[in-house]
Design goal:
237 residues, alpha/beta, Aminopeptidase, two-stranded antiparallel ribbon, 8 strands, globular
Length: 237
């Protein structure tokens, strides 16, 4: 129909949702349970948030099922942190197996969604971050990581930030904090292939101090509502 708005498709992911070590690789982490349980091993709370957003937005979900210390789903092939100190020194054949069995299927599935979902795709990658870094308390509660050079992506994230502040005024919502939105990652690597009229990709970073609070579950609904509001205000015509 003439004048009909183009469709919006959501895609939700949580690359670091798990600290699980598949059985064939458990010996690599013997004596290192504390590392697996730390932020180095996973992003606590990110999986729950991703599942809640996928349900609220009727979106497909890509969720990591193993620790990032095995092979990092949010790093491109060849990146220095693609493998951790536990796997970096493995023989080439074993590293290739890690890539083919665990990393490649996640990236292939992501690419398939980008090629098949209709209209403009909004990819939201859910992550969480430690409340302190190098002995300093981080002031950010919710961080939105994006590429400022992509105008539609930047506009969407600014609008989303305002909607989050309106619904969760007690929380500090910051742009490109505590990390840079253009750092190496799955979404960032695909920006080069899709402009932001087709793909908006951002990382939604949650301070882990919020995860343990009694009202954390209640925060998920206003986050989903803020995303829907930002779409309504910025969708292309």
């Amino acid at each position: 129909m003439p004048g009909r708005e183009p469709p919006i498709s959501f895609l939700i992911s949580a690359e670091h949702a798990s600290r699980h070590v598949p059985k064939p690789w458990q010996s690599l982490f013997a004596g290192h349970r504390s590392v697996l349980a730390s932020h180095r091993g996973w992003d606590p709370g990110s999986g729950e948030l991703a599942r809640a957003l996928a349900a609220a937005l009727d979106a497909p979900l890509l969720e990591g099922r193993f620790t990032r210390l095995l092979v990092d789903l949010n790093r491109s092939a060849g990146h220095p942190r693609h493998f951790s100190e536990f796997t970096r020194g493995l023989p080439a054949a074993e590293k290739r197996e890690l890539v083919e069995r665990y990393w490649q299927p996640h990236w292939d599935c992501y690419r398939q969604y980008l090629e098949s979902l209709p209209g403009q795709i909004i990819h939201i990658a859910c992550h969480s971050f430690s409340p302190e870094m190098d002995g300093k308390t981080r002031r950010t509660d919710i961080g939105l990581l994006y590429d400022p050079s992509r105008p539609l992506e930047a506009q969407f994230c600014r609008t989303l930030g305002a909607a989050l502040r309106s619904r969760l005024p007690e929380l500090a919502v910051h742009m490109n904090q505590p990390y840079r939105g253009v750092s190496n990652g799955m979404g960032q690597q695909h920006r080069r292939d899709y402009d932001d009229s087709r793909l908006i990709t951002l990382e939604l970073e949650i301070n882990q101090r919020l995860i343990g609070l009694a009202n954390w579950t209640a925060c998920r609904k206003p986050i989903a509502e803020a995303i829907a509001e930002a779409v309504a205000e910025t969708r292309p015509t």
